[in-house]
Design goal:
Number of strands: 11
Radius of gyration: 25 Å
Strand content: 15-25%
Order of helices and strands: EHHEEEEEHEHEEHHHHEEH
Structural class: alpha+beta
Strand order of the largest sheet: 1-9-2-3
Number of helices: 9
């Protein structure tokens, strides 16, 4: 097992849309990015923006009697997720093209998402240029072995306390060992790196940034033209 991290932002896609003045800028900023929905915490890749549809637009939905009926996005979310609130009826909808598993479930057309109910993931350009923020993210995501073990053991404890997980494992005749597997290993000595006229040893945490700071490389000027 490994530990993965995803940056979740507090601003919604609607807030981003409102902050931009042109549709081209909205398309450029959102298309290709990953968003996470408030209601099911699933992530979706934004493949485009549908500027013609909005929360009051309708789509076809099968009822309990099996008959197809027209329902607005607003009514759909109100019935399915009563605690959610959509306030902007003019916002465009985000387009997510169905993946293979979605198509296997019968979802052939694009999935349309409400920007107000989606949060952005990842870092903006301004955030990437914030040295203090990037340092804090690095300290959180680059865990030493001790913290990594503690995180994984905490994950195992949560699995063991889950009734649903226990029922599923019992059904399969499986159980998880609460202790991690121990194997014999050896530590390789640090390698020496050469940069121009400088020589330094790679640090134990494999972070070269401190050693590289202030150093420079001399490149020989060459030409590919005769």
């Amino acid at each position: 097992m490994d530990i993965r991290h995803r940056v979740l932002r507090l601003d919604t896609c609607l807030q981003l849309i409102r902050s931009l003045d042109k549709k081209e800028n909205v398309d450029k900023e959102l298309t290709g990015n990953i968003v996470i929905t408030h209601y099911n915490k699933r992530t979706y890749k934004v493949n485009g923006i549908n500027w013609e549809k909005h929360p009051l637009s309708t789509f076809e939905q099968k009822g309990e009697d099996g008959k197809t009926q027209e329902i607005t996005f607003l009514d759909y979310y109100a019935k399915r997720f009563p605690n959610l609130r959509i306030t902007d009826m003019t916002q465009p909808l985000l387009i997510h093209n169905p993946k293979r598993k979605d198509r296997h479930r019968g979802q052939t057309g694009p999935i349309l998402l409400i920007p107000e109910l989606c949060n952005l993931t990842g870092l903006s350009e301004d955030q990437r240029n914030n040295d203090k923020l990037m340092k804090a993210i690095h300290e959180t995501t680059s865990m030493d072995p001790g913290n990594r073990v503690n995180r994984l053991q905490g994950f195992m404890r949560r699995l063991g306390q889950s009734t649903e997980v226990k029922e599923a494992f019992d059904k399969w005749g499986m159980k998880l060992d609460p202790q991690m597997v121990e194997v014999k290993g050896r530590m390789l000595k640090s390698e020496e790196l050469f940069l121009a006229n400088n020589k330094f040893t790679v640090e134990a945490n494999a972070d070269w940034s401190r050693s590289l700071r202030g150093k420079f490389t001399i490149f020989e000027k060459t030409s590919i033209f005769s």
